Amino acid sequence: MDQPPCWVTVELNPGSSAPPPGGDLLHARAVGATDTLHFLFCSQGAPTLLLVHTNSSSSSLTVNWTQFEARNVSGSLKVEPESSILYSSAIVFSRLLEYDDVNDTADPTSDLLPPYDLQNFTWSRLNLSADSSQLKVSLDGVLPRATRSRFVLELQAVGGADPLSRVEVRRFIDDEFTPSIFKMSRWVSSGNRSSEVLGFLQWKPVAYRRADPALEFATPCRHSDPRPQTVAASALIRGFYAEPQTNGLNVSFGLAGEPFYNSTKFLSWTVLLGSGSPPVDSFSPLVLTLMAVGLGTPMILLLVGGVCVCVRKRAVAYEQIN
User: How far is residue 181 CA from its own chain's centroid?
Assistant: First the structure.
């Protein structure tokens, strides 16, 4: 089904007369016929991506910059009217950990180096759709601090009453270049006593060791089980949520025997944050063609064979006897 048309506007540091010293605030607003999705990204404190879904096509963002930069009071960032908010969720990139995998076990429980300060990193731009935002996390040219470096990214899901709470792993057919069965991890939120999915964070359990996401440069990644945590220091979380509920998990990159980060000094991983149920993957045209050929050819052969047998039998039945 086609998505209804929507208007997307993007603004940097809305309402601020000068660039804030602590880091920029990006606001993207996707307006539909009866609702609006607000996507906000800010690297003041721990880098954070916030999604707010409202049932109004005229909802707007207001920021009290003095309070927002001080990070000492909630309510400095609002989506109004507040009564129009249907759902909100935020993803906090709380820590990036590096460890020296001396024994090539891909077990990040020991030899951890001090975490990186992620607000000092340069972050990729957002790719927006009608109901979700895609963010790519890339380590490009970061000098390793060990001879066999691997990385772990700590993520926190923050919400009001219904933060992302459980991870589902689904199988699907998606890659038209190498048609096969793949997996998709979905960190989802459900309302109390309801099976309806309110929001999600979705990713393929694979990262890439080069900017070109080719299969030969793919490396698996794993996630831990979500558990309650104390939210990291984040200007967006502090400004928007009065009583945030937080769950966290770790995503580790690479398995035993896989090349280390040192081999290319590059690592990229992509996530999709959205409202409602995660998108359902459909078959690509090439996969459908292969299925049609694979299933259709035997049927055609059976059909032609059946016709030939019938014709032969009819010919035998009407053959004159000498």
Answer: 19
Beta bridge partners of 186: 168, 202
Question: What letter represents residue 14's amino acid?
Answer: P
Contacts (Cβ under 8 Å, ≥6 apart) of 5: 32, 33
Q: Are 203 and 270 in contact (CB under 8 A)?
A: yes
**162 pLDDT above the threshold of 90:** no
User: Which pLDDT tens digit goes with each residue over 56-87?
Assistant: 999 999 999 999 999 988 999 999 999 999 99
Which residue reads 């770790």 in tokens? 250
Q: Are 127 and 134 in contact (CB under 8 A)?
A: yes
E strand map for the chain: 7-12, 25-31, 36-42, 48-54, 60-63, 77-80, 85-100, 127-128, 132-140, 149-159, 166-173, 181-190, 197-203, 206-208, 218-223, 227-228, 245-253, 266-275
Contact 193, 211 (CB under 8 A): no
- Report how far apart, in Å, the C-alpha atoms of 299 and of each of 251, 292, 303, 304, 305 are: 46, 10, 6, 9, 10
**What is each CA distance from 298 to 97, 179, 303, 305, 309, in whole angstroms?**
54, 20, 8, 10, 16
Q: Which residue has the tokens 């731009």?
A: 125
- Indicate if the pLDDT at residue 304 is higher than 80: no
Nearest C-alpha neighbor of 77 from the set 105, 42, 102: 42
Weakest-pLDDT range from 105-109, 167-171, 207-211, 318-322: 318-322
Q: Which residue has the higher pLDDT, 99 or 309?
A: 99
